[in-house]
Amino acid sequence: MASLTAKERAALPDSAFAYVDSSGHRRLPIHDAAHVRNALARFGQVAFEDDGARDRARIRLLRAAQKHGIMPIGFLSAQLQPQLKLPKGTVTLLLADLEGSTELLSRLEDGYASLLAEIRRLVRAAVRRAGGREIDARGDEVFVVFERAPAALEAAIAIQRAMRDGAWPDAADVRLRIGMHRGRPALTETGYVGVAVHAAARIGFAAHGGQIVLSAAVRSAVIDSLADGIGLTDLGAWRFRGLPEPMGLFQAQAPDLLSDFPAPRSAVPAT
Prior knowledge:
It is a single chain. By secondary structure, the chain is an alpha+beta fold. 39% of the residues lie in helices and 24% in strands. Strands 4-5-3-6-9-11-10-12 form an 8-stranded mixed beta sheet, with helices on both faces. A two-stranded antiparallel ribbon has the order 1-2. A two-stranded antiparallel sheet has the order 7-8. Strand 10 (231-239) and strand 11 form a beta hairpin.
């Protein structure tokens, strides 16, 4: 690897590094081919501030590798490994979706990106504490998975409490819809596929901001381990577009969370 003195390294512009953290420390130098190879090899050892910082560093490294004619096959394989470590078999899927995102975007304009970043930080913190794994985060949605259904419910309640206590810009009323379903989706190289995934998404979109809606399958898996003060209210059976059978839905209740909501959205009662 090219040798640089401390003075020479300090003289490099920030653009010579893959990542500059909030304290101004410059990480992973990528100003020549040798440093690119070294950065690719050490990427997995770096403790990034958050997933967004990791994604930015990954993009910069891949661009640098392309510039210097390096084929980062090992690096790309390593980046796929977390996907392969997702739990298999029967799992609980949780979708958190921002209510009124279009209105918030119009109201906050440039501040909307910061709002989404803060929401994702709160969701990821609750999911991590409960032992869940993030599957995907696109736009105003976060999709996660848990091996244990009680852990998923614990995370959902923690997320809604964090959202309730959030200091949102312009005193905006910012709420997440949360839906959960338990099933056996197939795990592929690109993530989970199957009816269980679609059911979790449909339930999430059927919920209202501040609400936690779960399927009968999740209810059966958590009913014997509910924490003190946590209850489940039967919402009845509902039909969703694209799902072959009606689904029994339940609402999670906690004394310090909202409890009065309209009927589920984008669903019709099963007769």
